[in-house]
Amino acid sequence: MSKMHLELSAGGALLLSALSFLLSWEELLALACAAAVHELGHIAAICLTGGRVSSLRLTMTGAVIERTESRTAAGEALCALAGPFFGFCYAAAAAARWPLSAGLSLALSVFNALPALPLDGGRALAALAGAGTALAASLITSSAVLLLGVIAAASGCGPAPLAAGAVLMYYCWRGTD
Questions:
Q1: Is residue 60 very low, low, confident or very high in pLDDT (cuts 50, 70, 90)?
Q2: pTM, whole model, 2 decimals?
Q3: CA separation (Å) from 177 to 1, 29, 45, 51?
C-alpha cells in the first residue's frame, strides 16, 4: 500500500489564515471536522471502488484529492457523491452534541451536492450523463445560486451566497473544472 501525501499550497495557507481571522477557534474546528468527514467519504469510496489516492492537497478553493479514476461511470459518481453523503450522515449524528459542526456539515454537503462543476454533484452528473449535460446543468445551477445570492445580499443576509454564486458562475463561464 502506497502512502498518501498531504500538501498545503500557498493558496491553502492563505485560506487557513483568512478563516482563522474570520472565525472563532470553535467555528474553525467545527468547519475542519465537517470538511475532514467530507473528504474521508471521498477517500473511502475511492478505496472501495479499487482506486488509489496519491495526495490530499489543501488549496485556495478547498481540498483536492489526487487519485486514480474509477473504472466505471457509476464508480466515478459514487466517489463524487460519497463526500456529501458522509457529510449528511455526520450532520445527523452530530446534531444533538455539536450543532455548529452539524450545521456547517449540512451546508457544505448541500452546496457540494449541487449539479454544478466543479462541485461533487456536477462531477457525478458528468460521469453519468456526460460533460455537455453537466455544463448545461452548471449554467442553470450557477445562475440560480447567483440570483439567490443577490436576493439574500439585498435582504441583509450577507455576501456569502452571492460570493458562492459568483464563483460557480466563474467556473461555468470558464467551462472547466
A1: confident
A2: 0.90
A3: 29, 28, 21, 21
